Amino acid sequence: MARHLVHSLFATSLLSSLALAGPCHVSSHPTPTPTPPTCPSTPDPICDPNPQSFCAPNPEPECTTNFYNPIVNGNFETGSLCPWKLSADNEVCGYVGDQGADGTSHAFRTPTNMRDNNYLEMYQDIKTCGRAKVQCSYSWYWDKYYNADGYVPYVRIWNDNENVGNRFPESDDDAGYFHNVQTIEFYTPESGRARIWITAQSPQDRCVGDNWFSIDEFQCWAIAAPLDPGPGPDPEPTPQPTPEPTPQPTPQPTPAFPPIFGGGDAPTG
C-alpha cells in the first residue's frame, strides 16, 4: 500500500511532505531522570519484514451463515507476530510484549521511538467469503498525547486502500490506556481475499519526548454471509383459490298417485 503520511486531529489532512526534525537546543536545566516504559521490551524486536516469510498461510474460509473470524492471531496470544507482517515502508521495530488489553497476556507494541513521524505499517492478508459485509473491533493504545501544530498521534485501519478506521487521542486524558473500538465495517471483494493494514505515527520531534503504540484484540465477524438477504419481512401469505359452489340436482315433481307395479287398472272412486 502506498505510504500515507498523514496525521489526525478533528479532520484528516493529506500532506505532500513532512518537515525534518531540527537539532535539539542545549538546556540550562538539569536533565530529568527518564521514566521507564510501562511495558518492558523483553522480546527481541522485529525490524525486518523478510524473516517473517516462515509464517504459515491462513486457512481457507468456510463460507457459511456462521461466518468465522478471518483475522488470525489478532490478540497476539501466541507470543508471535505471525501472520501479521511489517511492510517494506515500515520504519518502526515492533514485538509482542506483555500487558495486553482487558488484562490479557500479550499485545503488539512498539519501542519508545514513536517520534519524528516514524512510520509503523503492518498488515495481514486475509481470506474471507466474497461479497460479505464484515465488522471488526480492536483495542489501541498511545502512551502519550502530543499536539504538534495541529497534528497528533493516530492509528488507522485500512481495508486494502480504503480507510475504515481512524482513531487518535484528543488530550492527555486519552493517553496511557487501551481504547476499545466498536466497530469498523467493510465489504469483502468478489475473490474473498483482502489485505488489512495498520498504520500509526506520532508527530513530536525527538527534543519534545518519546512515545509508544500498542494494538490488541483485533477480531472480525460477518453481519451477513454472501448472498444471504437476512431474515427480512414476514412472507406474504399464499393466495387461496375461491371455492366454486357445488351444483345441486334439480328436484323432480312428485306423482299424484303411487306408480302402478304389475298389470291391472288404476283404482277408481
TrEMBL record:
Residues 1-21 form the signal peptide. Residues 228-258 have a biased composition (Pro residues). Residues 224-269 are annotated as: Disordered. Keywords: Signal. This is Chitin-binding type-4 domain-containing protein.
